[in-house]
């Protein structure tokens, strides 16, 4: 279970972005989190991805409460969660080729030797052709770069996947391809999904259930 319990978070403790948000995702479940821009849903997604320490509340991951964040979190917890952000160009190191971008988590965890084999599986799974893998971010489209970012998120075979407005900047065909790649991965692995967005139609079609941001807050004690 991925459980966010009465979370308060922001970037200034004197003025949190939101108070008391609660949300759960069961193993194998896909949950959409729907809300307008600026409401705080992306900050909650960063808390769920162990990238942002909340001011109050708890994150429980697979039955264990998270007590450290970012690089200080235990490796087993860090690698249990894969995340895809809205803007691939700010999430990708411009110096890396797409192949190196996909392999980045393996290098960071001392598993560089697995990079070629894992990349060979993931690149076609997300719709990247071999000729694109040697290019750098400025040499590919936003959609192609987001495909690489999705592959990077899947590299360590996470049990939980967080997609924060993953398709907001993409055309309909690329959106459909990325959603299909996520669902194929989930079918094969049983991973849980938290998909954050503002497109109700997409989230309703994609996810087992969709939670409105206001209801996420209302669920807090």
Question: Your description of this structure?
Answer:
This protein is of the alpha/beta class and 221 residues long. Helix content is 37%, strand content 22%. The protein has a 5-stranded parallel β-sheet with strand order 6-7-8-3-9, with helices on both faces. It has a 4-stranded antiparallel β-sheet with strand order 2-1-4-5. Strand 4 and strand 5 form a beta hairpin. Helix 4 packs parallel to helix 6, helix 5 crosses helix 6 and helix 6 packs parallel to helix 7. The longest helix has 18 residues. It is globular. The mean pLDDT is 94.
Contiguous uncertain segments of 5+ residues: none
**Estimated radius of gyration:** 17 Å
Report the count of strand segments. Answer: 9
Helical element count?
9
Shape by Cα distribution: globular
Q: Helix and strand string, N-terminal first?
A: EEEHEEHEHHHHEHEHEH
Instruction: Work out the strand percent.
Output: 15-25%
GO molecular function: ATP binding
Organism: Streptomyces tanashiensis
Domain ABC transporter: 2-218
Keywords: ATP-binding, Nucleotide-binding, Transport
Short description:
This protein is of the alpha/beta class and 221 residues long. It is 37% helix and 22% strand.
What's the SSE blueprint?
Layout: E1 2-9, E2 18-25, E3 30-34, H1 41-48, E4 56-61, E5 64-65, H2 75-78, E6 81-84, H3 88-91, H4 98-108, H5 115-125, H6 142-154, E7 160-164, H7 172-189, E8 192-197, H8 200-206, E9 209-212, H9 213-218
Parallel strand pairs: 3-8, 3-9, 6-7, 7-8
Antiparallel strand pairs: 1-2, 1-4, 4-5
Domain ABC transporter: 2-218
Keywords: ATP-binding, Nucleotide-binding, Transport
GO molecular function: ATP binding
